[in-house]
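QUALITY CONTROL LOG
STEP: pairwise intake check
CHECKER ROLE: data steward
CRITERIA: each record must contain a sequence immediately followed by its structure tokens, with no blank fields

ENTRY 1 OF 2
RESULT FIELD BELOW
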Amino acid sequence: MHAYRSHTCAELNAAHAGQTARLSGWVHRVRDHGGVLFIDLRDHYGITQVLCDGDSAAFATLETVRAEWVIRIDGEVKLRDATLINPKIPTGEIEVYVRAVEVLGPAEELPLPVFGDLDYPEETRLAYRFLDLRRESLHDNIMLRSRVVKSLRDRMWDSGFTEFQTPIITASSPEGARDFLVPSRLHPGRFYALPQAPQQFKQLIMVAGFDRYFQIAPCFRDEDPRADRSPTDFYQLDVEMSFVTQDDVFAAVQPVIQGVFEEFGGGRTVDPDWPRIAYRDAMLWYGTDKPDLRNPIRMQIVSDHFRGSGFAIFAKLLENEGTEIRAIPAPGGGSRKFCDRMNAFAQAQGLPGMGYIFWREDGGALEGAGPVAKNIGPERTEAIRQALGLKAGDAAFFLGGRPETFEAVAAKARVEIGNELGLTEDGVFRFAWIVDFPMYEKDAETGKIEFSHNPFSMPQGGLEALQGDPLKVLAWQYDLACNGYELVSGGIRNHKPEIMFRAFEIAGYGRDEVERRFGGMVKAFRYGAPPHGGCAAGIDRMVMLLADETNIREVIMFPMNQRAEDLMMGAPTEATNEQLRELGLRIVPRD
């Protein structure tokens, strides 16, 4: 017999009754029934119930074991009484009567329990992640992640893509986030960077003549943490294709992503209709470029109904250039109590509040109620109702100003209204391609023109489009949103040096700086570059959705905390004086 096990803790069943078995695993739970010990023994595969009474030579040792001790047992497989069968586990028909036991690894008192789903502080969970990972829900999430990665890889190969690996140590590149810099020992005072993405390398793979590339790629970005974003590193399905249009990329990616969600969605519906929504429309209708389409609410501009009206706050606001009034319809929200609650929600988000109208029947007539309706009068109130398609028992909320000052709150309010009123669907994944992103944006404080998204995207209209107002230039840039999260980002690339130089010049990068930062790619484009494009899908975020989690750390094996610290390994650490001298570095204290 094997030194540690003849079977896993998920293998034994009624067919093994009467056989001798050897199992090894962790003590999941101990139950003392007055002279009879019942132990749930757990390994990676499952749980088997073992039992021992005072007649067994193993009883004295088993009395000493505690939760999470690692033991090996030898015993006889017996059928359970029909009334004691546990249909929830594969081994529920049997139990193993222990004849011998060996303690392989005793455990000290646990800092957090493994059995059950008690809510423990995240700092404790991350410091003892090796224990946290033993918990069933987290273990299942990590296994789901592995299966999703395998499925993605298989589907990409089946679609004619080839997997390549790109460097982990490279040059710093302005791709929208801060780099992690790596000092060079051989070149004092100079630094490598961990790649924010394999962006330049995958484009160079296309220039090198390979056609359909993919990679399960680690990416490193020194970012502020969020619930749906890791502050240090993450993995993405990286994709690039030659001789393609935007439509070709969409056609290649949808079957892969949709197939994975159908395979691992746990019975949830995957809507096969992936609409294309222009960025400007997404911001207008939903207040975000990653809308949750399970919520049917669409915002509308209703500025004309407030110009010159008796609602002085909005009427005066509209006298300023670039301002507008936007309405959030709320079907079924037509009560003062609900409207007051949403007004308080807006105030909690830092706004003065939200205006509102709710409609009710009074003596068979439909009328609008609330401060806004009172001030603008019944004619304007009725016009707003008709424009929004609302009826008795419905409401509308209003926000005004420059869109950039209230869109984020409007987006949150739309989600809150949809959830509160039960309008948001459950059990479905709804995808949408967000297209026609602006190539540039203006910094509100400095007035400087900057890239609004990926700097390597081709401007729609090519070089000619870059001769006019840069804020009107659209890029061949696209994202894929699902249930309120961005899953994919990509674009058709700028593969012509003259267009690339002009695009970066508008953003303040001179020709020399472009040559210095992106010399390898610029040089490659001078020697016959094919039109190409691609995208990257966030694997962590994809698994988070499939696992029905709201925090990305629940699907990453060894995540950092909110302060980008590894509490288990103690990173980041201080460098020794010897290491600093070797690298030619000196630590200068911050003031």
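ENTRY 2 OF 2
RESULT FIELD BELOW
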Amino acid sequence: METIQLIIVGVIAFIAGSSAGYFIWSKALEKRSKKIITEAEAEGEVIKKDKILQAKEKFLQLKSEHEKVINEKNNKINASENRMKQKEASISQKMEEVARKSKDVDVIRENLNVQLEVVEKRLEEIEKHHKQQVEQLETISGLSAEQAKSQLIESLKAEARTEAMSHINEIVEEARMSANKEAKKVVVETIQRVATEHAIENSVTVFHIDNDEIKGRIIGREGRNIRALEAATGIEIIVDDTPEAIILSGFDPVRREVARLALHQLVTDGRIHPARIEEIVEKTKKQVEEEIIEVGKRTTIDLGIHGLHPELIRLVGKMKYRSSYGQNLLQHSREVANLCSIMASELGLNAKSAKRAGLLHDIGKVPDDEPELPHAILGMKLAEKFKEKPDICNAIGAHHDEIEMNTLISPIVQVCDAISGARPGARREIVESYIKRLKGLEEMALSYPGVLKTYAIQAGRELRVIVGSEKVTDKDAEKLSFDIAQKIQTEMTYPGQVKITVIRETRAINYAK
């Protein structure tokens, strides 16, 4: 207000033309300006002091924090030094123990060397006496030690063969006269047949198209569609010069089926681009998973098997997309289940347990992951995980002799698996491996003395061996058939069983002229 009043007085004086008034007004204005400057400087000093105090407080705070961090690091360093000192003390103690033990070892070694020298001297004396005795025996018998050994071995072999054949006949006769329970065991054990097999997966699926123009749309601009499809399905898509066909390649049959169905929907719909591809693939995966569960449920209902864990039902459904030697795994498992039920009923055993084990015996071939285990052992572990009974688990794990059989259901599952796999037309093999197996059968039988010709017939399920009547007797023919069967069983891999027939005949030929 005072400043405004001064300005008003100055204006009035200026208007009135009074120089004295104007002078007074200017002095007053100058005094006011100095007062304002003095007040501003005082206020600045106050602000300056506040800022200096704040800076000092911040500095002290940072200094205390820094000292705290340094103290923590010093504590850690001290603790580390203490641990190092303890380790050094422990190491020095262990080194002292090692040095003491090494001294003991040196003493023991010296004692052993002395004892070894004594033993060597005694061995030399024994060898001298042994040589003298052998020379005396050779002089008395008129045979060398090697000749006597070979004669003894040959005589023992002949006696062992004769006794073995007689024991086999005695065991078979005794088994025929055993009780009903023992008879069931013998029947099951005599019909069981180990079928060592290796699953051959079909790794490609052929997708047929109406015309080759669709191939360009599937590939897309600069290959973006085919790349998106491969990334979404995990399947390699081969588009080549094959007319009206696209090849889907991959080792996972479920993924191949997803890729095939997704590709079919995309081609039918006509809209093929990366976003649409991802959408269709996701829908198809859900459809296939639902189909797998539905197939598993239908299978268990058809076979009359109840109480299976939902995860086992899903694995049964996955068998639809797996094959072994060209035989569909689900159909094979259904067939084995029915065979097990029939055989168990004939033998007076639990048909429901046998059917359940038959259906689940190959679930180790369709796991979600791929562990390094035989499929029989893996299937047994899965059955144990989902609370199947011990006899079921043992039958699954023992159907390829991976573990020991301890129930009567186990050999039933094994033999039914072999029957289903060996059925004519059930499985297919590569032509080269098939021919190689037949040649191996014939050549193996030809290696025996007295064999003139061999013929593998009935797709390798029977081997006919023709022998010379002057070189092989009737007893030798029976023994030859047994030896060939044992050698095939131990050295060769084949489905089902091989029948060995040894034919010995005498022919008298004359000509009337």
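INTAKE CHECK: passed for both entries
DESCRIPTIVE NOTE, ENTRY 2: DSSP finds 16 helices and eight strands in the chain.
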